[in-house]
Design a protein that fits this description.
DHBP synthase; 2 domains; 13 strands; globular; binds threonylcarbamoyladenylate; binds magnesium ion
Amino acid sequence: MTAKTSDIEMAAGVLRAGGLVAFPTETVYGLGADAEDPAAVARIFQVKGRPPSHPLIVHIGGAEQLGDWVEDVPATARLLAEHFWPGPLTLVLRRGRRVPLEATGGLETVAVRVPDHPVALALLSAFGGGVTAPSANRFGSVSPTTADHVSAELGDAVDFVLDGGPCEVGVESTIVDVTGEIPSVLRPGGVTREDLEAVLGYPLAVPAASPVRVPGQHPSHYAPRARVVLVEPEKVLVEPEKVIVEAELAQELGHQVGLFLPASLAGAVVKAHAVVALPDSMAAYARGLYRFLRELDQQGCDLIVASLPVEEGLGLAIANRLRRAAGPRPSSTGTVPRQ
Ligand code: TXA
Ligand code: MG
């Protein structure tokens, strides 16, 4: 879906004036500001309720602009950019002087990507600069994959919302650190590890364990209101009846249970508040993941029992988000604080 030229022009004007624009990408909707305007960047953190030490991604209009935003472009970064951009891949490189520390959470590295969405690319082209944007949701909660989700999350706090229809990929970009000798994946996402290794021709490095510093690495993230309990893929495969009986028991005990089950099993559930029949294709599961979580919240579920996919290909990114959604929450009420 494309947007009207007049809307793109207006959105670019809002960015130039230091405002915030929510825009579609192929992964999720972003909450954008002029990457070179520290006051506008600061507003992103305020609106999201995100701690200022958590770095943002700078979105640019084409791979040829990468050198404008980073100190240097190593050969591996060039190779990956040429291969996967525009697309759901974010590269972490040494920060160029053009990028204010407000955008990188004080880090000397910067995350950059070229989104693969006609509306995002039109906005970047009309604006002419870099647009720094996290996902357009409150800190810790589920990323938006439609313009309606953005409005539900952020309401009037955003100056302009560009509607580009539902996002194709549905989970965030893969983040690859290319500052070291061998690239490593910091967050699995729309480009799979298998795809990256095929292009590189060698295995990716295992990232060094780091203290929680970036939201994607926070134990609880991408979380709906309802508590999330996970079911490992082997259990769904070997004893599906048990998964269903346990969920039904939770419902009988007074929970409002929402179940994520493979479509072949969904019909067997009798007692649950809501059932999501998961598509067989990982691409369709990823595309629907955040919408499913939102829908179960809206339907009043307080407990989501979600079957995990096998952790390969796109399944790795889906499982990563579900594990974080099920992670320990900061408060005892089981809900992530929303600001
Ligand atoms: O698909 C996406 O990546 C979406 C769309 C809008 O582009 N954006 C997104 O942004 O997911 P956000 O802010 O929700 O997540 C950005 C992640 C952070 O969680 C952090 O893990 C990583 O990017 N990041 C940013 N700068 C970094 C840096 N200098 N070093 C390491 N990680 C960084
Ligand atoms: Mg996010």
